[in-house]
Design a protein that fits this description.
Helix content is 39%, strand content 15%. By secondary structure, the chain is α/β, with parallel strands linked by helices. It has an eight-stranded parallel barrel, surrounded by six helices. It binds 2-phosphoglycolic acid (PGA). Keywords: Cytoplasm, Gluconeogenesis, Glycolysis, Isomerase.
Length: 264
Amino acid sequence: MSTVPKFVIGNWKMQARHEHGLQLARDIAHAMRDTPPPSHLHTIICPPFTQLDGVHQALREVCLPHEQLAMGAQDCYPASSGPFTGDISAPMIRDLGARYVILGHSERRQNHGETDAIIRQKVKAATAAGITPIVCIGEHLAERNEGRAASVLSTQIEGSLTRGFRGILAYEPVWAIGSGITPSQEELQRKLQLIRALLPMRLMTDDIRVPVLYGGSVTSVQAPSIMSIEAVDGVLVGSASLEAQSFLDIIGAAAEATAPQPSP
Ligand code: PGA
């Protein structure tokens, strides 16, 4: 029986107002308590900073094991404290119950000028605070069309991951985010195999399996075929995670597509 954990992660971005976010968290948590997904499936929801505390309380009310349903933040600052107006540190999000943090999302690389070096500092800070980093990498459309995806991914892996990285990697081609377009199964399989082949340059030992997820326009319609690709360890979901039923449908599809096969 397969015991490799699979992940469904919801990235709410800056999109749910306070009450909507808390209700969304409650709806997801209650549905998962009533119909628990299989234990190999780990669900993580990542609200904006302002909702971390409330969402954490909502998740605690249902008493699900944190492997089953946990909370993450969408960013953290590289330093643990100091005169950094407007920033939020990894220990601060840990205090509010975050177990994960998304780092290096393309929207932060693009809108905040985050470089691989900055992301690596954040990975270090998160790890030191006991938070699992979810690092996003992915090429732009022009880079893909010019045949430069492999070198972009290689540079991002080498630059943004720490040596001995312990976390999750999410392959999110920038052209697939919010576009309604997903890579073909064949392209996704090829890219994920490439990423797996590149990973050992940042890992100290061979026996660590870094979960590699796919993100970009995932809905419950594409989730089964994406999750059935062997190299895919889960999905990072943006807009389809903002509505409880569509997110629960993705969790259901992921559970079905990755159900351990009984040995013959
Ligand atoms: P999307 O976003 O599912 O809305 O394309 C995914 C992401 O940016 O993580």
